[in-house]
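User: Quick one: structure for sequence A, then sequence B.

Assistant: Sequence A:
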Amino acid sequence: MTFTEIPWSTESGLPLLAVLQLLPLLAAALVWVWRDASRLLQFGILAAGLELLLAVWLYLLYDPTTVAMQFAERAVLLGPLTYHAAVDGVSVLFVLLSALLSLLVVVYGPVRGLKPTAPLFMAVFSVEAALMSLFVSLNLLWFTLVSAIQVGLIGYLLWRWATSPDSDGVLVSFYQFMGTGVALLLAGTLMLGWQHADASSGLWSFDLFDLAAKPVAAPHQSVIFFLLFYGLAVRTPLFPLHGWLPTMAEHGNIAVAPSLLLGLKVGIYGLLRFVFPVVPEAVAYWSPFVVGFAVVGIFYAALLAMMQDNMRRLLAFAVVSHTGIVVIGLFSLSHIAFQGSVMLSVTFGLAIATLFFMTGLVYRRTRSTLLARMGGLFDHLPFVGIAFLVAGLAIMGMPGTPGFDSVHLVLEAAIDHYGALLTIAAALGNVVAAGFLLWAFQRAFLGPLPEGVSSQAIERTSRAELLVAGLVLTVLLGAGFYSEPWIHLIDRPLAGLGQLYGNTDP
């Protein structure tokens, strides 16, 4: 069965997807009206926890044995801007990750020292609502417009809770890159709608299944591909479109904004959901060039990371480097490649969020993210150090972490599609990238205390911090030792996409 033959929906009388999108907005509205600072944290945890329970309920109700989209909802709004939502296993996995990271952010903020205020929780819940909408939408125009809203909300978080006096310059750079990405994504979206109208007697549509059913004319496929690809690659972020990230990581919010922006690979999801099914010929033609940039980006970012003396900038280059591995898997264009890329995206999301969380807890004590100001922290923050190390090992793809199966699938697909040379280069790049994370761990946690710093001055881990570190450790190790359900969840939805590219993996 090819992608366009997949049943477009399995109708459901339960508007679960609408509830998942509206509950965070309702929580944001209640926070605005209530504004009881003494109970704000408890309410935030309750609302975020309820959203996670709904996401888990969606997972339990979802039938992974069918390729049909499930829980479909549709409403006519303004012409082609229709509300059309449904989920497959990939969507369910990203919805679970969104709900989990949002809960962790709500818990982490006060632990890190951010005062629980109404504007902070309103922004976090609004971002969560936007993420839920992105991961269940089947309308490309809707996806693009909500992406713009989410970018604006993340920018607000960067501006309002930045940890550097240079935040204004960071915000300008962030909006320049992200605004360009949204503009390119919108241009590609409108071109697709125009192409559909040209092939359908003037009927405009941005619905995924309408677009996939009407092949794009060959002369326009490459143009549309590059507009959509570059628009999403800025968010991923893929080399050389990553220029906004190091400065944002260094001068922006220590963990909240990066976790919500980088922990959820919206760019990777958008490519899989909308680009690959709609312009397959252009994807197949340009995939070697994209993979070439990804390989260069792995080594480029890894080498730059080794030169950093700032932990946050180092983590930013880690994101760029390891994103290259995900992109190589994605553009290997096979069933197992898509499986590995999705699992790797989720793994990196969890791991990167964990690394930023732990760095934030270190910053709370050292008041600095310079590696020269760190050292000897493991004696005082052993659990924080263990969480940092496990997250780094997950990115490396070590056995026992969720990255192990993912990296194996990606490299297996890459060697089949591109041969041994490129795959070995990508694997070596991953080793180099892993090396700088281990070096950062050694220097910050195992190295000697910097001169003039007394060991008694370092505050030990609090119970709340132990809770945050314990939660992320449990999820990382649990997903690592019990990854089979997640691979089974995304297996059937990605089979049709694999067949679209001539792959017949079981």
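Sequence B:
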Amino acid sequence: MDLCFAWGIGLSTFFSENGVLWPTLKAIDEVFQMGFPFDDEEKLEDLSNGFSRHSGGIMEGCVLAMDGLGMLTHAPYVTEVERPKDYRYRKCGFAIIVLAGCDVKA
């Protein structure tokens, strides 16, 4: 949600199949091999059913719970990153965003 706020992205765009969320998760999975079953409908359905059972039916269609926080840092120099302004944190100063996700079993 912070990304939507910071970059003016609509929630429907963020969550759509070709929006921000899924391509980003796939890119992270390719680099760090999270093992998330993006293309396995059966496993995704199993995850969704697990969240639904655990939440008493409130979390229908959820396959991954994510949260994030901003780790405050100094303003990066142009010699460190290509676009220092990309590290501006909406709450104050500059930060590196840390994201974590888990399935219903974690």
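DSSP finds four helices and two strands in the chain. The CA atoms of residues 72 and 92 lie 8 Å apart.

User: Thanks, that's what I needed.
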